[in-house]
Design a protein that fits this description.
One of its GO terms (molecular function) is oxidoreductase activity. It comes from Glutamicibacter soli. The protein is α/β, with parallel strands linked by helices. It has one domain: Flavodoxin domain (Rossmann fold, 3-Layer(aba) Sandwich), CATH 3.40.50.360. The protein has a five-stranded parallel sheet, with helices on both faces. The two termini are about 25 Å apart. It binds ligand FNR. Ligand FNR binds next to helix 1. The site of ligand FNR has 13 residues, from helix 1.
Length: about 190
Amino acid sequence: ATYNIGYIVGSLAAGSINRTLSKALIKLAPECLSFNEISIKDLPLYNHDYDADYPQAGLDLKSAIEASDGLLIVSPEYNRSIPGALKNAIDWASRPWGTNSFARKPTGIIGASPGAIGTAVMQSNMRSVLSFLDAPQLNSPEGYITFKPGLFEANGTVNDQSTSDFLAHYMSEYGAFVQRVLDVTAEGHI
Ligand code: FNR
C-alpha cells in the first residue's frame, strides 16, 4: 500500500531550516510514503466567531488533513513552545466543535534548531496538544535535530552520514507506525 502523508512545516520563514529538514525527510522516506504539503501561511488568526461560517482557508486545511493517511509536523521551537502560526493552524483544524480533523490521524513530530536540545520542549508541548486532539503519535524514535551550518544542502541532501541514517530510520519507523494505526482501524474493532 502507499500512504499519503500530509506534512506541515511550522515555520513561515523563506530560509527555514525546518523546510530544509522536511526535504531531507521526504528524500529519505520509504517508497510506501507519498507527501503533500499542507500550507498554513494564508490562515487568518482563528477565533470562534468564524465557526458559524467557516472561511474557505479553514475548510481547505481541514479537508487536506482529513484526506491524509498520516500527518508529519516539522517545526521550529519558539520560546520553548509551538510557533504561533502552527498553533493557529492546529486551532483552525480542531474546530468547529465536533469536527476535530486530527482525531485518529497517526502523527509524527520532528524539528530542527541550532540549539542543543533541537526543539525538544516544543515537541513536548505539541504532544500534549495532539493528545487532547486524539491524534496517535509516533513515540519512538524522537527527532530532535541540532542544525549546524553545512549539515544540509538547500535541496535536502544530508551531508553527514549518521544524521542521514537517523532520519532514514525515523521515516521508516514513522511509515510502520502509520501502517499499524491504519491496519488496526481497518480491522474495525470497537
Ligand atoms: C527562536 N529560536 C529558538 N530556538 C530554540 O531552540 N528554542 C527556542 O525556544 C527558540 N525560540 C525562538 C523564538 C523566536 C521568536 C525565534 C524567531 C527563534 C531559534 C530558532 O531555532 C531558529 O531561528 C530557527 O532557524 C527557526 O527555525 P526555521 O524558521 O529556520 O525553520
